Amino acid sequence: MNEDLSLLLIMVEAGGIFAPLAFVLFHLLRSFLFIPVSVVIIAGGVMFGTLWGTVYSVIGLMGVSILFYAFIDRMPKTQERIIKIKNRWFGEYRNLTVGQIAILRLIPFVHYHLLSFCLKQRKPKFKEYMKASLLTNIPIAFFFTIFGEYISTFTPSVIVMILIGLTGLVFLLREKQNVIKWKDFFKRKTEKAAG
Hints:
Largest sheet: none
Order of helices and strands: HHHHHHHHH
Distance between the termini: 68 Å
Helix content: over 70%
Number of strands: 0
Structural class: mainly alpha
Number of helices: 9
């Protein structure tokens, strides 16, 4: 992880006045280099400060969201794999809310594109998807830009407490559904008809 951060710092420093553009483009390349989103955003906070690091990260993440939306339907094998992972993690019939996706993006080991796929299922139209992407990208950019320098110094117990807190938020922001089993549904109907 330190090597990835060093590579990014060298690239951006060499860019001079084009450093913000290089940083945004690095967000687009990040997926192909298998670098976690959080590492790039943390580097943005170190290089550009809180305000500009957040702005550049949001721009880069929105570019990634546009590319994902444009290409995921053209990649059926990748889409099948993402669907299998989504069904295993979140359930086949469950659609995450936009708030849940925003919280899950704050958890570093939850795959960014898996959550983009869940967002695309929830908001299939491009304009709605982009609006929801913006709402889910702002918290991750803001959080990792501000706290990026301090995350590496957290003790394991603090990290566990943060993850438990985020998990609790995902539970609280879930979409509430009532499920009635097939036999219970017809059992109640026959009881009403008999009574």
